[in-house]
Amino acid sequence: MPEPQPVLAPPATAAVFLVVTVAPGGEETVRDVLEDVPALQRAVGFGAPDDLLTCVASVGAAVWGRLFQGPRPAGLHPFRELAGERHRAVATPGDVLFHIRSRRMDLCFELARRLRGRLGDAVAVADEVHGFKYYDMRDLLGFVDGTENPVGQAAAAAVFTGAEDPRFAGGSYVMVQKYVHDLDAWEALSTEEQERVIGRTKLGNTELPEEVQPDDSHVALNTVTGPDGEEREVVRDNMPFGSVGDGEFGTYFIGYARAPEVLEEMLENMFLGRPPGTYDRILDFSTAVTGCLFFAPAVGFLDDLPDRPAALGAAATAVRDAVPDAVPDPVPEPAAAGDGSLGIGGLKGAPAR
Length: 353
What we know:
Structural class: alpha+beta
Shape: globular
Low-confidence stretches: 313-353
Order of helices and strands: EHEHEEEHEHEHHHEEEHEEHH
């Protein structure tokens, strides 16, 4: 298998998730930066090898054909929005994702700063989240996150493409969602009720017995099995984030998988229900405010990028030369007060449930 990007890096204590959209005419700059990600990572992390600075660069469906000639990964498509009876998995803009991890936030921050500086006006930032380790790998809801991640060869088999798409072997599909929590409502629940929502014990971090595991618990609905009855696994590297001043507290979900349909089935279970209507109870306390799907190619792909589409390159250059400062804003302006939006922190402009 071709060498993959550092998708399976050890658990980090700090992360930056940087999602950008590519402006017309910015394609060549973005290609240059994608090729230079390993060099930038080495430059920032060289003096602190024990702090394990890594960066995984991923590309979305909308920009793939603008950056590269030839075929695209077989499963790459725009994020599929889901609208359940009560909750919605929204799709939001995102062309390139940089997933930066380390044991130190200053290293993450510096690498993100250098990437942003190199990209310049070629991109607009759609979302930037700084994640941190919270206690003993818990989320802000107080539960340990990522317990069921596979390890070793099982993890590699779960996240890296292979013979089913040989041109893109060693790559991985990446789904991200930013969830904002209603901590006041959550903390009003008893510990026992919180455990029924999650499907695990809070202190001991063990799954509830099958006979008492609610069908609408987070654990129950995020377990996906194939036709042979074996569990289809993904690797999550979620991180808490928050702003005390803005009253914004959340979890940044990031999942890597060999095929996007595994991640998508989990979302369908959560938002639509399994059976339909039995949605994930965690959504009563956590609102998804972003949603994007990307593909993280193998290292060799980034080292030797396919040619850029010639016709598109000429057209994009003409647009850039005609309007040199035009950089689209991928995020709509926050809705005015009184329009039904939640109007706080990262939920400004998001509809109230």
